[in-house]
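Protein Record: Sequence and Backbone Structure Tokens
======================================================

Structure line: whole-number tokens from a learned vocabulary of local backbone shapes, matched to residues.

Purpose: to set a sequence beside its fold so the mapping can be learned.

___
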Amino acid sequence: MIGRMRLPVAIILAASLAASAAEPVLAPGASYGGRTVEQLSARWWQWIMSVPGESNPLKDATGANCGAGQDGDVWFLAGGVGPKIKRTCEVPAGKAILFPLAQRGDRNRTCDQARAGAALTQMESVELAVEIDGATVASPKRYRVTTQECFNVYALVSPMLGKAEPHPSASDGYWFLVPPLAKGRHAVKFAVRYNDFVPLPGRADQEVEYDLKVQ
């Protein structure tokens, strides 16, 4: 169980013991619906950028907006602003679920500049934890995905909201793809904590818990 996120030793030990068990997420490098996790991560960024204002799922305190802009066979979950977030979300049956941890994106004049701007640093100083229905993901840092091909992060933004220059965008982070869950209630928890010696401007501690209702 993920408690207050100092990522206690019990969680780290649980992750090690779970290594021999079936993972609750698809293996690193997996694809779903003919798309790689790298491609889906770009789609996640396009999705999150397409939802304006206070309706954006990143700002959602309860889960009321978790369905905003959702489309296709993969359902996206967002992190958020603040150290601890708990949301309730209804998810259509048959959808895989994708969510990131410690993700970073960048938009720049060239693809090389965007990739450099998105690159994560000091990740040896970061602790990650992911849990699906009580099953812990072992060694979550195995799930790092960096976009090799740049994308237009504003591709799904409504023309009604204005037009932005389509400079190349890139992403880096840890991405977890959950196969479709059975109908019913499910708990998805994920957290990131930076060690105390990481400078404050570079820290983004986060703890997110979703109560999913698959129906």
Observations:
- Residues 9-214 form one domain.
- The longest helix spans residues 37-50.
